[in-house]
Amino acid sequence: MMPCHNLYYSSDHCFVADFDKVISPISVAHFSQHKLVDLLLKKLEGIGFQTYLPDEIGSSTQDLVLENKILMGHECSSIQLTDDGILVGASFNNAGRMQERKIHCGLLLGADGARSTVRELAGINMKGQKDLQKLVSVHFLSRDLGKYLSRERPGMLFFIFNPDAVGVLVAHDLEHGEFVLQIPFYPPQQMFEDFSTKVCEEIIVKLVGWEPTDVQVLDIKPWAMHAEVAEKYIGCNNRIILVGDAAHRFPPAGGFGMNTGVQDAHNLAWKLCLLQNGVASTSIIQTYESERQPVAHFNTELSVENFKAAMSIPATLGLDPTVANSVHQVINSSLGSIIPRNLQKTLLEGLFSIGRAQLSDYVLNEKNPLGSSRLARLKSILDEGKSLQLQFPAEDLGFRYELGALDAEDCAEATCEAERQKHSKRSREYVPSAKVGSRLPHMLMRALSTSNEGVFSTLDLVSGDKPEFALIIAPLKESYDLARAMLKIADELKLSAKICVIWPQGSVDAKVRGSRSELAPWTNYVDVEEIPRASVNSWWETCQINRKSVILVRPDEHIAWRTESDRVKDADSEIRRVFSNVLCLATTIQ
């Protein structure tokens, strides 16, 4: 939504497919980070973890052994490589005095955000564009504002431009009146210390256009917008691994930061588990970088493009951010050493005030040729969807790993290059694919031969509770042969695996019971029935493959291997070769 003085434009970013759950079993959602953290902590507590504040575990600075403990109020302050891992220094506040306790670990995951201390201590550099914009983030509550917006202008994201102030208002929860306001600022003329609670409250009033009576500022923080990716995700002899914002920093345009970070964790978790259990080779950790880093580079570029598209709105209204940045640079370079900072600040804010005058009624009206032209361009940008985009299903769901913990498909070089070019094209349309490296496509299924009448997604065929591989087949003899071989080899490797047999809609119980005899003596299988949408005949058609196909799905729901069962001559040898590649084992499993 784009409030502009007494003008108001809105744009709907929700698709029909979201509510019909065509491409995913879950609709798109706006979910703030602190709520996600609370959700994750509750989940961890539910599986036996406990949270501790510094005073709850004492002030001992000796080596601390942790098991199922989450230390709150601690920050990584030092790292030291040892013969069998890393000795981590964790600083904490003890009665107003900072202390450090030592924690020994085999691997250290740096998931400590965009200004990662772990990354800095590991000596890993970031590459890309720095300091695209400096901002002040104001987290505040106001039920008055929430009620007003719910009634008059419901929305999630508000870009506000008026003669008095400019800012972006994020509505995290209209019902409870929770907001975050982003305000651009330009140091050293404007300093973070200038943004006191009182000043921020005044800016809120200027942006809203009226004075809510219950504004409560909870937090004020400065931050810088970057578009960077870590030069490597793994360092210090494979002992340190970067995850989330510690590995990549994007402009907040499109939700790529949280989505990419969650994908990082999803990719890494099962690999760490299999490594710790002695099932996978240590080389599997390197596949985390080879799979995830290209996705981060792609999303960095896309988020920058999306940020520039968002800035086309103020530029059209006469408030080009690039001009503001240029003015700021000129003041810094030519006047910084000549006139005092207070005078520089007065000059800068005076120039910005003149710039915001472009948003006055005198300029922005249909009778003013300049204003009329700007309003027409603004309407065109919004109508054609050329401003900020909030949904990227092709990128969020359709990314594909090309090199890593998978058995790549054989294809001619020209065909592979054509596929890479197709993948790199900017498209908001998600096309389901069962190619190796792709995420398993979604379709609703129903379990057969059970009392459970409920429906679920193909994505739920993959266990969420343990690192388990799933082999998806149609009820064909050759496919059953491969399935038995897969279960036997997985058992030898002490690897959790199951078979998912997809039957056509309307299959009768007598036929379905055939899986029991075909897969005996193994019992870790499930028979499911397709529930295709009207426009699709079957799940295999959705995946653009035939029923002879066999698909091995990794614990992170990405496809590790695909073949056609009638092409496999020796099922045991083929399955051993595939697991050798996926688990990064040095030699073929004998």
UniProtKB/TrEMBL annotation:
Task: Report which superkingdom the organism of origin falls in.
Answer: Eukaryota
Q: Which InterPro entries match?
A: FAD-bd, RIFMO-like
* GO BP terms: ubiquinone biosynthetic process
Q: What Gene Ontology cellular component terms go with this record?
A: mitochondrion
* Occurrences of domain FAD-binding (ranges): 70-298
GO MF annotation: an example: oxidoreductase activity
Record keywords, A-Z: FAD, Flavoprotein
Q: Which PANTHER family match?
A: FAD_NAD(P)-BINDING OXIDOREDUCTASE FAMILY PROTEIN, TRK SYSTEM POTASSIUM UPTAKE PROTEIN
The protein depicted here goes by the name FAD-binding domain-containing protein
